[in-house]
């Protein structure tokens, strides 16, 4: 089946606004944008990865002229990512540059901002020193389009932030858009008319005259820099990435570089925006960047604020999969931070302070994937069970940890939690905690007699809580697992994986499951199906037991989005029925076509719920 998806404005801009691309071409364009699929060419071994992998949590800041516009140009609101307003509203270069006269962030208080990051429990701040619009929040001899020369404010904002970070003991990193520069005639994706004799090789002029001098300024004028966070390398030739690596290493050997520098360089991998991987990625050191609402920079209409609990859950999920989490705030044009973001960061920060042991310096979960009730981090012999959704039956079950339980306590107050072990299965009984005043995300600390090592990563079906078997966990034969990414409305990226492209009736997708309690399970399916593959029939089985089902087309998103590109297939959730899993231990769940139409459906996940 040929799932389609909405390509983002970024990918389109990178591909010189070619409106009709195949799905494969679009996917490739996003790889270029994020540089994420290219294997890092050097073995990630930078000494600073020690703090990076220990600290887990950083603040990202998107701030610039676009923040003053807040999503509005000439009285019209442009819905999308705030910092892309110049592109979305097609603002002429001269007019955009002239707008700098309105940027006067008199209320900016660097110390307050750094203290907010500290209160949130973040250890590093990375700010957009220069985004794609080319405007510098620092003083630069290489450009006049800077806060010091083009605005009434005139003061170097990065200097203030660097001083405040140094005073408060917070690391500072700079975001620098090395390829896209919409206001530089020779820059990537210039929004004006290129000079007459322009050739793509003239990128060199921009690179030598602006990128090299400005990155040098950032590396030499602001004290110790923890990282330079490059973005959207696009088609920039590898030699430029290499030059930047050399430049950073020369001036600040301790400074980290993210993989979006392009060309396979970088000290660690930045996954696609807002991607919280459900399964542990095998890419060495990595991070997820995310934001407190949907847009990166301030946009007046974007009220989709993440609650303190959501922030904690996302931080835990990333930490549990072995990554680091960088969460963005978008200050307004006057320098103030939206109150909702402040509250969420402060509240989640209180939780983090009380549970710091379960985040900083942890190793991630011994399981490659999370659970429906929450997720796990670990340190030595200790496991930290972060309970997002208190299980209905008051019991958590884990098996095959390769170690024995010694004790279980609530991390926030050290109170004892009942636990027992039968064979290799542990049970943690939460009954004694019911009715108590619990933290937003309660954490149970399990102390074992050895570090947990889960040798068999088959999904554990515990007989108590629902379990979703994801496409990412399947073995596909005669079909394929494929990831899709699209931007939904205000810049928030969605990431879905499917088992799809069923070639024949002999194709199959299988999931290994470790059944802790045999019996009846209620099964449901989340899938996507195009019109021309509707009414195909399928068999889902486990051993001799099976369920037969038919799938309907799942519908598509409207094409009338501000994003160009064809419609994206929607997902559909259906109940399949009740299936008996007769034996405990390793089993296999299998899906095969019974009557295949077209390339069949895309399976996102199958959920098993104990049937009571
Ligand atoms: O185009 C940028 C976008 O504006 C934002 O800065 C994000 C943050 O990761 N990076 C690019 C898109 O991935």
Task: Write out key terms for the chains shown.
612 residues; alpha/beta; TIM Barrel; Immunoglobulin-like; Jelly Rolls; 3 domains; globular; binds ligand FHN
Concise summary:
The chain has 13 helices and 29 strands. The protein is α/β, with parallel strands linked by helices and 612 residues long. Ligand FHN binds next to helix 2.
Describe the protein.
The chain has 612 residues and is α/β, with parallel strands linked by helices. The protein has three domains: 5-354, TIM Barrel, CATH 3.20.20; 374-456, Immunoglobulin-like; 467-610, Galactose-binding domain-like (Jelly Rolls), CATH 2.60.120.260. Helices cover 21% and strands 28% of the residues. Strands 7-6-5-4-1-10-9-8 form an eight-stranded parallel β-sheet. Strands 18, 20, 23, 25, 26 and 28 form a six-stranded mixed β-sheet that branches. It has a four-stranded antiparallel β-sheet with strand order 11-12-17-14, with helices on one face. β2 and β3 form a beta hairpin. The model is unreliable at 1-22 (pLDDT under 50). It binds ligand FHN. Residues 10, 33-34, 81, 83-84, 231-232, 273, 289, 296 line the site of ligand FHN. Residues 1-23 form the signal peptide. Belongs to the glycosyl hydrolase 29 family. It comes from Rubritalea spongiae. Residues 39-357 form the Glycoside hydrolase family 29 N-terminal domain.
């Amino acid at each position: 089946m040929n799932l389609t998806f909405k390509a983002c404005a970024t990918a389109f801009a990178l591909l010189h606004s070619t409106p009709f691309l195949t799905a494969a071409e679009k996917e490739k364009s996003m790889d270029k944008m994020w540089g994420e699929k290219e294997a890092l060419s050097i073995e990630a071994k930078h000494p600073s990865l020690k703090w990076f992998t220990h600290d887990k949590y950083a603040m990202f800041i998107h701030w610039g002229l676009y923040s003053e516009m807040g999503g509005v140009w000439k009285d019209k609101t442009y819905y999308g990512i705030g910092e892309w307003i110049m592109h979305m509203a097609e603002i002429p270069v001269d007019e955009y540059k002239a707008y700098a006269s309105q940027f006067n962030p008199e209320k900016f208080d660097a110390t307050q901002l750094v203290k907010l990051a500290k209160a949130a429990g973040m250890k590093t701040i990375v700010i957009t020193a220069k985004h794609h619009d080319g405007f510098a929040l620092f003083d630069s001899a290489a450009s006049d389009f800077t806060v010091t020369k083009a605005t009434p404010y005139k003061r170097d904002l990065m200097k203030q932030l660097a001083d405040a970070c140094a005073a408060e003991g917070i690391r500072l990193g700079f975001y620098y858009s090395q390829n896209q520069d919409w206001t530089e005639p020779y820059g990537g994706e210039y929004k004006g008319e290129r000079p007459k004799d322009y050739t793509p090789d003239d990128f060199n002029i921009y690179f030598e005259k602006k990128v090299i001098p400005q990155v040098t300024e950032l590396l030499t004028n602001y004290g110790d820099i923890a990282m330079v966070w490059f973005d959207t390398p696009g088609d920039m030739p590898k030699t430029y990435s290499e030059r930047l690596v050399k430049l950073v290493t020369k001036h600040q050997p301790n400074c980290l570089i993210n993989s979006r520098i392009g060309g396979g360089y970088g000290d660690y991998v930045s996954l696609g925006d807002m991607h919280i991987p459900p399964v542990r990625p095998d890419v060495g050191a990595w991070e997820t960047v995310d934001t407190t609402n949907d847009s990166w920079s301030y946009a007046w209409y974007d009220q989709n604020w993440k609650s303190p609990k959501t922030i904690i859950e996302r931080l835990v999920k990333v930490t549990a999969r072995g990554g680091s989490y960088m969460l963005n705030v978008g200050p307004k044009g006057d320098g103030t931070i939206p109150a909702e973001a402040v509250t969420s960061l402060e509240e989640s920060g209180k939780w983090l302070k009380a549970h710091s042991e379960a985040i900083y310096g942890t190793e991630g979960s011994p399981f490659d994937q999370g659970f429906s009730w929450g997720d796990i981090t670990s340190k030595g012999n200790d496991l930290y069970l972060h309970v997002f959704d208190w299980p209905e039956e008051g019991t958590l079950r884990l098996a095959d940890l390769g170690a024995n339980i010694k004790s279980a306590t609530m991390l926030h107050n050290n109170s004892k939690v009942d636990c027992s072990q039968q064979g290799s299965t542990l049970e943690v009984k939460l009954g004694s905690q019911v009715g108590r005043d619990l933290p937003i995300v309660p954490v149970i600390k399990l102390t074992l007699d050895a570090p947990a090592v889960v040798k068999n990563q088959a999904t554990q079906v515990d007989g108590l809580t629902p379990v979703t078997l994801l496409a990412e966990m399947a073995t596909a034969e005669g079909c394929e697992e494929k990831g899709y990414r699209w931007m939904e409305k205000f810049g928030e990226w969605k990431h879905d994986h499917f088992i799809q492209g069923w070639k024949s009736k002999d194709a199959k997708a299988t999931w290994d499951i470790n059944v802790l309690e045999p019996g009846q399970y209620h099964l449901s399916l989340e899938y996507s199906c195009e019109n021309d593959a509707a009414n195909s029939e399928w068999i889902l089985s486990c051993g001799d037991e099976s369920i037969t089902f038919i799938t309907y087309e799942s519908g598509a998103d409207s094409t009338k989005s501000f994003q160009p590109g064809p419609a994206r297939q929607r997902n559909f959730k259906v109940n399949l029925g009740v299936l008996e899993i007769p034996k405990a231990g390793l089993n296999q769940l299998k899906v095969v076509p019974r009557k295949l139409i077209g390339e069949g459906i895309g399976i996102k996940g199958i959920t098993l719920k104990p049937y009571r």
